[in-house]
Amino acid sequence: MTERLTRGFVVTDRQPGCPFDPSQRLTHMARQEEPTRVPVYEPRFGEADTVILSRYADVRAALGDTRLQYGHLPLPAGEPRTFMPGFPPDHHGAEHIRLRRMMAAAFAPKRIRTLGPLVDKVLAERLDVMEAAGPGVDLVAAYAVAVPSIVIGELLGVPASMHQDFHSLSAGVVNFASSPAEYFAHLGKFGAYMKDLVAEIRRHPTDGLITELMEGRSGDIGDAEIVGLTSALVVAGHETTAAMIALGALALLERPDQRALLLDESVSTADAVEELLRYLSISGVFPRVANEDITIGEWPVKAGERVLVSLLTANRDPRLVPDGADRLDLTREPVQHMAFGFGTHQCPGQHLARLELQLALPALFHRFPELRLAVPADELTFHGDGANVYGVEGLPVAW
Ligand code: HEM
Q: Distance (Å, rounded) from C-alpha 35 to C-alpha 47?
């Protein structure tokens, strides 16, 4: 295959007519005996031949192998350098472990559970606003994007005076589909805002993670690293959760039988959310590079070669789900899916994302039992090939 692809294609390459299923191209790759090697463009590192891993066992082996690293890579001449101290995906080894420790307490399941009342409050307020604006809204803007952005803002302790900019800048920075120039311009603006935010909280401490980091509760960390760490939380935690709320709602609108199971509580909400995460697999992982000649599963990967994994096809591998992996089935026993990745970079925000999804989806359908799509499903558009996270552009609904 010689076609030039951008890195988002492993995430967003879906079946025409069925926005939830992997495209024939990806399915074909997953069925091959050997991984595909193809030139792939990545905004931060340019174009390089890339090994695409798409089967469950290969993806798990790759993500569990610390000889495949993201960060500290030689950049092609002229490419803008965006390495950020404190930004966990850019780090590995002892430095990475230290940064993960800084976040561990704030994202531990027990601590995240205490955020339930806050998330419920945010959801109820958004649903009230929707109801007042109704009987129709764009569910992406009115609900899906708003909820995670308010929750992350609260978690970090963003002061009320900086709320508005926080929500618009954090929404803009996750648009990986933009051109490299737009992407880096946005990243620059966002980075400057986060620097100001940390400086403001240094002057006037608030209740939240940024102040806790400054107090050194999890170890020594300087303000530059706090900027990198908290920027990662905003970037990685915002669009992912928003995309899952919107696509999850769409999948349930398209499958009234599954929606009924969730709402009459004949399945556990937690299990239903795991199945939605597996079935939709909205995320890719940051590209990895081998730092020596290695073997992943049975496959040789040369030092310096780039590797990308498809979580979508991995999570639909018949060896993981023998009974209809391409079917959404909320009654399924949860499997060890990798929608949050695997290995040392596995998503630290997964318990927060689960909490938001477990509360947001039932709350939406309980408030609006008559919720329906306001346009034919085939008129919806989905993030294109450059995107890092799969999602629906807008979701007009009515009740
Ligand atoms: C990493 C998915 C929500 C923060 C990751 C990775 C995946 C992922 C697949 C691994 C990337 C890799 O290995 O290269 C998701 C999905 C979410 C979600 C599907 C929602 C449904 C969140 C939330 C936060 C968050 C709510 C925080 C508020 C992060 C961070 C990393 C990460 C900081 C980088 C970790 C590291 O490099 O050590 N996420 N995520 N994510 N996620 Fe999430």
A: 18
**Which residue stretches of the chain have pLDDT < 70?**
1-4, 43-45, 71-83, 171-181, 183, 384-387
What are the beta bridge partners of residue 294?
Answer: 301
**pTM summary value:** 0.94
Secondary element (H or E) of residue 314: helix 311-315
By alpha-carbon position, which residue is closest to atom 12 of ligand 1?
285
CA-CA distance, 278 to 286, in Å (whole number)? 19
Rounded distance, CA 225 to CA 243, Å?
A: 28
E strand map for the chain: 5-6, 14-15, 18-22, 36-42, 46-53, 68-69, 136-138, 288-290, 294-296, 299-301, 306-309, 372-373, 396-398
Backbone angles phi, psi at 135, to 5 degrees: -90, 30
**Using CB atoms within 10 A of its CB, is residue 164 exposed (0-12), middle (13-18) or buried (19+)?**
exposed
Classify 9-398 by CATH class. Answer: mainly alpha
The answer for residues whose C-beta is within 8 angstroms of residue 155's C-beta and 6 or more apart is 106, 115, 208, 209, 233, 352
> Looking at ligand 1, which atom is closest to the CA of residue 148?
26
Q: What is the pLDDT of residue 286?
A: 81
CA–CA gap between residue 115 and residue 209 (Å, rounded): 13
- The DSSP letter of residue 64 is T
Distance between Cα 318 and ligand 1 center (Å): 25
* Nearest-angstrom CA–CA distance, 249 and 141: 13
Q: What is residue 385's predicted lDDT score, i.e. its pLDDT?
A: 60
| Structure tokens, 346 | 């596995």
Q: What is the pLDDT of residue 239?
A: 84
Q: What single-letter DSSP state applies at residue 55?
A: S
At 341 the pLDDT is: 97
Which pLDDT does position 217 carry in this prediction?
A: 87
The answer to whether 63 and 343 have CB atoms below 8 angstroms apart is yes
Q: Is the distance from the beta carbon of residue 153 to the nearest atom of ligand 1 less than 6 Å? A: no
CA 61 to each of CA 79, 325, 342, 346, 354: distance values in angstroms, whole numbers, following the listed order: 30, 20, 9, 13, 25
Q: Is 246 in the pocket of ligand 1 (CB under 6 A)?
A: no
The whole-angstrom separation of Cα 173 and Cα 286 is: 16
Instruction: Kindly list the domain boundaries of the chain, sorted by start residue.
Output: 9-398
Distance 84 CA to ligand 1 centre (A): 17
CA dist 3 and 5 (Å) reads 6
